[in-house]
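Bug #77: duplicate submission created two jobs. Keeping one. Sequence:
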Amino acid sequence: MSQQLSSTVDDVIALQPHRLAANLLFDDHGLSPYWAISSQFEPDLDEQDRTFTYNGRDWEITNSAYWEGKLAAPDAASWDGAMNEFKISVYEEDDPHNEYGADLTFRPGYPDARHVDTGDLIGGIPTECPESIRLQVEATNLSKPELLGLLQSLASHLDVNPDYFTDAHAWSSIYGIELYGRIDRETAVGQIAGKGGVLEHMAQFSNGRGRGEHKWDHEQIKAHYEAVSLSPDLWERLLPDQTLAKRLKCYQPQWVRSEDDGDDPLYHHKIECQFWKGYYPDGEDSLDWSGYSYAIDEMRETIINALNWAGVDFTPNEDVWVDDPYFTVQSGDSSVEVFPNPMPDLEQQERGDARDTLADPDTTSGEWDVLVAMTDGGGRHYDEIAQEAGRSPSTVYRAAERFDDILEIENGVVRFQDGVIRDEISKIAQRVRDMKDTAMDSMRRIAEKATPFSRGQGEPSALEQWANRHGIVVRNATKELHLELSRAVSKRELQKILRAGLEAAEASPMLTKRFENAKIDWQNHHGEHKKGWQIVMNGRILGYDDPNSSIW
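Kept job's structure:
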């Protein structure tokens, strides 16, 4: 992606961590943390009327359970058999939704861990795993520092040394992060999600070239759910220095609030950026635990820039943003780099690339048929495309090889590189169909002695030959003659084509003056559509003197 001018913005909405999922390993004290949790654990912890305080809030254990794991006891243990695993859920006492807290699963870690039944090495644990306590975390509405603080406070509450949970091992990883803000429904529906919203525009780049996905649900209300997921290389086409596979979504609760009573924040939408390990296209999964802050910054930058491209105020404006029990409308504590919307230029560039790729005069009719069949849907198996195009599978493969700048084939599935290219090819294919239809109409009019370019005989006139040679379509011939050029050209190329047309008109039965006064629609190489240009103005083609002069 080319370097874009950007600006640093300080007054930016503070976004709320929604979910944090991680696999942590604490090894500074060997197995001591595991033995401590094991000795202090009681199955009825969730039934005891005991709370503890952290960060000015009261917390309670809402669930406690244990089970035999699959790890055989290490040699240092005094018994044979499986090692137990323990789950403790901790949430704020006064939170009626049980959405402010964490589920914590404690497991032992040690080298050469083996399956209790088979004696085989456990595949999910490195053979050189240090003696440690392994902790799986599923936290909601907690940041990384808040999670660690809550974990240490829980340890103290259980009479376990909180220092056991200070420094996580380098193998610790994050497999899920979500960051969100709650935004006014009218703003969300009008500018972010739904028809014409920024998510729909971004979805043009969500298929091909890596991994992408666009999902939506507008049944109950418009923008009940809409999400675009892109792999890192696709995100980097929109923003520089992107490293995460992310999903950006705008959504309502499962049960949509139909009326705004003024007090229910769930009437309004969430805009959320997510990372989960399954988003990566090439087998990568989790993030380093130490990379949490970087990931949060990248996700925050993604949300803020998408809002900017949608024309939505990303400052803490209470007319746009809505408080909920976990999200507060306030300024963030760091600035964000804001970039101009790259999508219009990127779309125009891709459309130009598609047109340039198809300009090869050696393209066969079979390859064209494959492209036309491809425009009717997304990625499909080559056999299905061959059947629809009425061509052989080998023709589909040849087309994929010829047009490798715009098509890709993987595991027998052929697709356009992205939706922008598919849309442009569809338009080109339609123009080709129109041109063919017009050519057939011209032949019929010749036979009927009714074509505006015909000289009333069985063979096409010079003007009709000129039109067919250059792909000129007659859009209207009833009163004012209106033409269209079906391919992209420069002004200089257009001038040369029209000069040849004027010479052909002089050798045809049509009044030359009528051709001179005709209007033509055309398109330049930048994708700009020009409407109703008069062919001759002030006695000159397009009003210019020399067809060889530079008139860009």
